[in-house]
Amino acid sequence: xxxxxxxxxxxxxxxxxxxxxxxxxxxxxxxxxxxxxxxxxxxxxxxxxxxxxxxxxxxxxxxxxxxxxxxxxxxxxxxxxxxxxxxxxxxxxxxxxxxxxxxxxxxxxxxxxxxxxxxxxxxxxxxxxxxxxxxxxxxxxxxxxxxxxxxxxxxxxxxxxxxxxxxxxxxxxxxxxxxxxxxxxxxxxxxxxxxxxxxxxxxxxxxxxxxxxxxxxxxxxxxxxxxxxxxxxxxxxxxxxxxxxxxxxxxxxxxxxxxxxxxxxxxxxxxxxx
Amino acid sequence: xxxxxxxxxxxxxxxxxxxxxxxxxxxxxxxxxxxxxxxxxxxxxxxxxxxxxxxxxxxxxxxxxxxxxxxxxxxxxxxxxxxxxxxxxxxxxxxxxxxxxxxxxxxxxxxxxxxxxxxxxxxxxxxxxxxxxxxxxxxxxxxxxxxxxxxxxxxxxxxxxxxxxxxxxxxxxxxxxxxxxxxxxxxxxxxxxxxxxxxxxxxxxxxxxxxxxxxxxxxxxxxxxxxxxxxxxxxxxxxxxxxxxxxxxxxxxxxxxxxxxxxxxxxxx
Lengths: 274, 269
Description:
The complex is a heterodimer.
Chain A: E1 4-16, E2 22-36, E3 41-45, H1 52-58, E4 67-72, E5 75-76, H2 83-89, E6 90-93, H3 106-110, H4 112-116, H5 121-134, H6 150-162, E7 168-172, H7 180-195, E8 199-203, H8 207-210, E9 215-220, E10 223-228, H9 230-235, H10 237-242, H11 249-257, H12 266-273
Parallel strand pairs in A: 3-8, 3-9, 6-7, 7-8
Antiparallel strand pairs in A: 1-2, 1-4, 4-5, 9-10
Helix pairs in contact in A: 5-6, 6-7
Chain B: H1 16-19, H2 22-38, H3 42-59, H4 63-72, H5 74-87, E1 92-96, E2 99-102, H6 103-129, H7 132-143, H8 153-183, H9 193-198, H10 201-224, H11 243-262
Antiparallel strand pairs in B: 1-2
């Protein structure tokens, strides 16, 4: 069975009108059905308002579906009794690095998740050190979080998720507020975590980041518009344009250079052109 | 500029004072403040000052660092001194029109100034030698008994942790808003005090809104990391009473006795 299974997922936000009554508002998701396998690396793309972020928040029960079901490792997110079982399996990293760090000191922040799980102090210490080494921030462990750069803060946020030893991490546009170096370092860590067996779900605006996944899901107006390997997705130029997206720079370059469509990365293009 | 600010003015170190349990330091500081009010003559202050000086010496916090904290409240001390100096009746030492300085007034003013200085240095020793997180942890544990009567000790401690964490973030945010408003032609520098106060509104309102946004983001991030209140939560660095704390407790009792005894010493002047 798939690790995460999403069935006919509908999320409708209600809003309060002038008279204080709840009225149906916008439908963010409009019947998404999707299975995500253990250990896979799935990128979710789509233009603004396509429902990407809402979808991400459904995966660990931050948003409860209006209709349909999300099942994580056999637990339904509607079942409040198992909410913590779900959240310890599915970690999450958000867009703004500043607004997800709880504690002033780096290592205290990374310890926040494991502390919530009620783990023994010695084990927390081990997990925190481990997680900080994994993101290459061990030397900074006693620093104040406000002294770090955006990319470093985002690595701390990833360490905070990793320290909970999740089976899956959902990244909700983790690189949107970073400079190119910070973006690269975060992408490297994401790929490394996936190589170690953690299921990765990456919500992103950047097509070249999506191209690094095993599978891409394109959302449009709250529906799955396309689903396939990066190779297949980016081969369908017409579909990409309909979804309001652009081809990654690499693919554009490849087509202009007249190279075969097996070439996916800049390195490959350079090799071919030599 | 904003990146350089120190949080809660902690001075890193590994002296015996730094290693004490935060709870010991909080209790010691409270007791010291109470003792300063028990003191009724300069002998007492001499003893209290000597004790404080010993603590400073053991902690190896540079004196310069400690006095930096004093400069901020210098105005308050000066104000108290002047008020006491002129307001007390008694034997007149000096007089000019309605202003007069009396012997009693001078004594009272000196007395108050010394008390204030010791009070401020004493309490800043606690924040200088304890990490903010240890301080909030210690406070949480100390307030725990009061949770029986409904005091949310864990929530209070967490609120303090988050407040400390977000001081730099909100300062950066303020900086950004000020620049954005200046770029739109806002003027914060001219006009009288009322006009200037009014011109702060375009800074405060966006700041208010953005702090709500931050709070919402943070709440989501905390929930995603399985936060569900203080129940069943463990800590990475659990605080323990050690031998040093026992020694500190004994010293505190002895010190309290000495201070009470000092009340019965004859006054110097």
